[in-house]
From TrEMBL:
UniProt key word Hydrolase: no
InterPro entries assigned: AKR, Aldo/ket_reductase_CS, NAD(P)_OxRdtase_dom_sf, NADP_OxRdtase_dom
Catalytic activity: (R)-pantolactone + NADP(+) = 2-dehydropantolactone + NADPH + H(+); isatin + NADPH + H(+) = 3-hydroxyindolin-2-one + NADP(+)
Lineage: Eukaryota, Fungi, Dikarya, Ascomycota, Saccharomycotina
Organism: Babjeviella inositovora NRRL Y-12698
Domain annotation NADP-dependent oxidoreductase: ranges: 26-278
The protein's name in its UniProt record: 2-dehydropantolactone reductase
UniProt-annotated catalytic positions: 55
Binding site for substrate: 120
One GO BP: ketone metabolic process
């Protein structure tokens, strides 16, 4: 499968909607820079932009998409996939309804609708989480939001949602921190059984593992095999693709945008797969997947 992937490849969600096989994240991208960085990412070939209410750059991300589409009329809005997320403070039916409207208002003028809304994390309680899902399902029924999913959900949080008697729309995505040092095989195998695609955030480990000796060695071996330089960052993004994940690399450096997308036309060797197949649990960001509701 991975040998045939290109920057234009699409993955099919359980609701029949297609999503790009790789995305561009705007976490920690200042609002004042998001418009230009999103436009540059789309210019380089990305077609999936991942934002969130808590990032404070939804409006600018939408404007960046609109700017690119205006300059490139051959690319249709339907070809660009925009994601945002409901923050923890807005869990619960009424609060989520209001949050959805806020997120819609920030992008309706620029891009018209939201392709995907995720529950940013399970941090609240069961009643609020399910109330949030009820509000999201209603948004899908109205057509202003095309698909819904979750982020930072552990197996128990996914089980809770899938067992809910009010479930109409299954989560199509679970977005979690993933990289060779945090493969989360319990969550990814559960998701595979239930036809939930996995998005990998912080696939570049926020730079914390870029100089890892094993990663550097694998990158050198892949470079030799591919006949061109493969950087550790490219190796990590390709690792996510090899696992069947949708990686969401981010960078504030414009020159690195095309480099992070140059992860096609070559693939891992068996030795590279073996070296980076780690049985570890090294969280480099935060870990709501283990969240327990207050007693």
């Amino acid at each position: 499968m991975t040998s045939k992937l290109t920057a234009q490849s699409l993955r099919k969600l359980s609701n029949g909607v297609s999503i790009p096989a790789i995305g561009f994240g705007v976490y920690q991208t200042p609002a004042g820079e998001a418009l230009s960085i999103v436009s540059e990412a789309l210019k380089a070939g990305y077609r999936l932009i991942d934002s969130a209410a808590i990032y404070g750059n939804e409006e600018e991300a939408g404007e960046g998409i609109a700017k690119f589409l205006k300059a490139n009329p051959s690319v249709h809005r339907s070809e660009v996939y925009y994601t945002t997320k409901i923050w923890n403070d807005d869990h619960g039916y009424e609060a989520t309804k209001a949050a959805i409207q806020k997120s819609l208002q920030k992008v309706e003028k620029s891009i018209g609708y939201i392709d995907l809304i995720l529950v940013h994390s399970p941090i609240s309680d069961k009643e609020k989480r399910l109330g949030t899902w009820k509000a999201l399902q209603e948004a899908v029924a109205l057509g202003s939001v095309k698909s819904i999913g979750v982020s930072n959900y552990g197996v128990k949080h996914l089980e809770e949602l899938l067992a809910w008697d009010g479930l109409v729309n299954k989560p199509v995505i679970n977005q979690i921190e993933l990289h060779p040092w945090l493969p989360r095989k319990d969550i990814t195998s559960f998701a595979a059984k239930h036809d939930i695609l996995i998005e990998a955030y912080s696939p570049l480990t926020q730079g914390k593992k870029i100089n890892d000796p094993e990663l550097v060695q694998v990158s050198a071996e892949l470079s030799k095999n591919a006949g061109k330089t493969i950087s550790p960052a490219q190796t990590l993004i390709r690792w996510s693709l090899e696992q069947g994940f949708i990686p969401l690399p981010k960078t504030a450096t414009v020159s690195r945008i095309p480099e992070n997308l140059d992860v096609f036309g070559w693939e891992f060797t068996d030795e590279a797969r073996k070296t980076l197949d780690k049985d570890s649990y090294e969280v480099l960001t935060w870990d709501p997947t283990v969240y327990e509701d207050p007693k």
